[in-house]
Specification:
This protein is 35% helix and 29% strand. It is an alpha/beta fold. The chain has one domain (3-173): Rossmann fold (3-Layer(aba) Sandwich), CATH 3.40.50. A seven-stranded mixed sheet has the order 3-4-2-1-5-6-7, sandwiched between helices. Helix 1 (3-13) runs antiparallel to helix 3 (31-42) and helix 3 crosses helix 4 (58-70). The radius of gyration is 16 Å and the shape is globular.
């Protein structure tokens, strides 16, 4: 299925009364559309990754489905302070999100082996700041980030380089 067909199906399923960011949960509720989305997003990464990693919360839904499709393990990237481990077992990083609110992410030190190839995924990329933070965390563990897969991407200064480089595989864009 082409990205254009998927975009049209996605847009038809997004509630028209949402404020700010789109509510993509109705898309996930449609098992056929969600399967088409996961199949499309996973298609260039078969046999090329060891893990799929996603920040919580909706990213986990997509990430787990992608990991299953690619037959690889899933890495949960948590919001700061949520992992039930002592500080010495956690890698943490801070960033400013799309609204310039300071946030933090963390991952357990033993989730990833050095040299592992990682595919990052989430439902939407607006500024790329969350993903830059995820990349920093995984690089600290010695992982190799091979790509980013997302349903939608906001074509901004921070994301243009990823789109142009082919690092990001996405369904829809605001260009």
């Amino acid at each position: 299925m082409s990205s254009e067909v998927l975009v049209n199906k996605i847009l038809a399923n997004i509630p028209k009364n949402t404020i700010g960011r789109y509510d993509i949960l109705p898309i996930i509720k449609d098992k056929y559309l969600f399967a088409d989305i996961i199949n499309y997003l996973a298609s260039p990464f078969h046999g090329k990754v060891d893990y799929v990693a996603s920040p919580e919360a909706i990213g986990w839904i997509i990430g787990v489905a992608m990991a299953r499709e690619l037959n690889v393990r899933f890495i949960q990237i948590r919001k700061s302070g949520k992992l039930p481990y002592k500080a010495e077992f956690v890698i943490a990083a801070k960033y400013a999100d799309y609204s310039d609110t300071e946030k933090g992410l963390e991952v357990s030190r033993d989730f990833v082996n050095a040299g592992s190839k990682i595919l990052l995924t989430d439902e939407w990329v607006e500024t790329g700041r969350t993903f830059h933070c995820c990349i920093d965390l995984l690089n600290t563990l010695g992982a190799i980030n091979v790509g980013l897969a997302t349903i939608g991407i906001d074509y901004q200064e921070g994301t243009k380089e990823w789109i142009d480089s082919g690092f990001v595989h996405f369904i829809g864009c605001n260009i």
